[in-house]
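Action item from last week, closing it out:
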Amino acid sequence: MGEMTERWEERKLQAWNRMWEDLHIGYLDEDILDVLVEIFLRPGLYPKSSCSGRITVIDSEYPWAKEDTMTIFKKHAPVTVEEVDAVARKPFAHRLWLSAQGPIYHVYAQDVDAASELLAAAREAGFKHSGVMVLGSMPLVELRTGIRGDLLLATRRHRILDGDALREAVAVVNDILAQAKERNRRLLAALRRRRPPRLWGPAVEKARELGIL
């Protein structure tokens, strides 16, 4: 085993152990655990970070802004009118945006071939905005869908979404989130169809326990 391979195996095992620690303390989106394990099963891949899709309320001038932006509410499951209304009643600095965002995965690949295979499965599953973020000795791949919706909830002067309008907006972002979660299921199916004959040993036993193998 060469130095690069040893370094890869060490990093992958660290990521594997960290994933279970994150699950234990509640940092991991549990509903995509099967997708993450499926990625780990491939000898040439391991996930760095992931999000199954989420609904947020953002305090920002624009929903795409990076500076002077604060996420003041976040949930990876459907939201209620009462939850959003409670957030909108609190003080804020700029504008409040009610946003729903699709899933995103960052995955390290051992080589370009492993990255290409992952991207092929992702695009098959509807992750059409995916690509290689860093092309080096260990490419970093981002899997992303085009699923997103941003609704103006309030400005400093006016509450935009209230009453029936808020109820309809909540229904819309919950529907967008449902579409996002469906992409995760499609990704899992696409990965399983392309599962290689040789699997990564440390993940096999756990995958069997979870019913993935």
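Closing note: The longest helix spans residues 163-193.
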